[in-house]
Amino acid sequence: MNDPAITPAVTAVADDIAEMEIRGAAAIADAAAAAIGEQAQASEADTPEEFRAEIRAAARRLHETRPTAVSLPNALRYVLQGMEGNTVAELRDSIVATVVEFRRELDQAQDNLGQIGANRLRDGDTIMTHCHSTDALSCVRHALNDGKDISAIVKETRPRKQGHITARQLRDWDVPVTLIVDNAARRYLNDADHVLVGADSIAADGSVINKIGTSGLAVNARERGVPIMVAAQTLKLHPGTMTGHTVEIEMRDEREVLPDAEREAVGDVRVENPAFDVTPPRYVDAIVTERGQFPPESIVTLMRELFGDQQNGEPWDERS
């Protein structure tokens, strides 16, 4: 059998996810689901077997782009598990319908999460953020809608400076923003009432896998007595991982840290550029989801309720 035809739309989305043109767990999940829908609609498969093979191949292509962001495989699982039917037309319709359902639930989940998270923020609070999280920003947006005055201390989040995206969004909402370099976080924690971050994955023990630098911020915040709130849709829960330290941490291109133009001046050094780190649950006060807010140690109960027992294999595997 020839290799299944993957549409240019899927390839483009996969490339954008890998190159971080599409970033943020919710945005990645939404784009991946939409790409599978486009693959289904564009398929010219003659048989149900060929159609399923194309969809699995498209899912594998997307899955391989970002190993740490669990929202990606969770989105793919959701869509592929909705693939049902005995004809190509039935299979196509089931995929398209499941994609529409998934994207609708994704939008509603972030809104519900924001309303719950806003209840933890008080009028006049100053938050400190790290990286860029649409889930975390949803909490701020709902607090503002509730009439609360919120200000923010935003870490740049090097090397890609995703904090600048957060700063721009907050300023669009007229939130007073102080932008700081990452190394200044400990100093400015004295001025913060909450640390508010997102998550790329959450392990069953409540460990939070998020942008590199989150764990150091959490340790400093706990030492200063500043509560740490993690805003994360249940799409970020990683039911197959018992502890955060077993999650594969993505290593990014070393040129993000040391561009080619600067390498000669620095000399022959080894460069490592991990994209994420693991924050142990003891440094987290609350994990806010669309299902409610939970202490980290209760996350495993939520996972069992949502996912039950995990089956072997993935729906995009050839033998699944």
From TrEMBL:
Residues bound to substrate: R23, G24, A25, A26, R66, N210, K211, K236
BP terms from Gene Ontology: L-methionine salvage from methylthioadenosine; pentose catabolic process
A Pfam family per the record: IF-2B
Top-level class of the enzyme under EC nomenclature: isomerase
Catalytic activity of the protein: alpha-D-ribose 1,5-bisphosphate = D-ribulose 1,5-bisphosphate
Recorded superkingdom: Archaea
Keyword Transit peptide: no
InterPro entries: IF-2B-related, IF_2B-like_C, Initiation_fac_2B_a/b/d, M1Pi_N, NagB/RpiA_transferase-like, R15Pi
Residue positions of the active site: C131, D200
Known EC number: 5.3.1.29
Keyword Kinase in record: no
Keywords: Carbohydrate metabolism, Initiation factor, Isomerase, Protein biosynthesis
GO MF terms held by the record: ribose 1,5-bisphosphate isomerase activity; S-methyl-5-thioribose-1-phosphate isomerase activity; translation initiation factor activity
Family to which the UniProt record says this protein belongs: Belongs to the eIF-2B alpha/beta/delta subunits family. R15P isomerase subfamily.
Known role: Catalyzes the isomerization of ribose 1,5-bisphosphate (R15P) to ribulose 1,5-bisphosphate (RuBP).
Other noteworthy facts: Reaction proceeds via a cis-phosphoenolate intermediate.
Protein name in UniProt: Ribose 1,5-bisphosphate isomerase
Source species of the chain: Haladaptatus paucihalophilus DX253
Lineage of producing organism: Archaea, Methanobacteriati, Methanobacteriota, Stenosarchaea group, Halobacteria
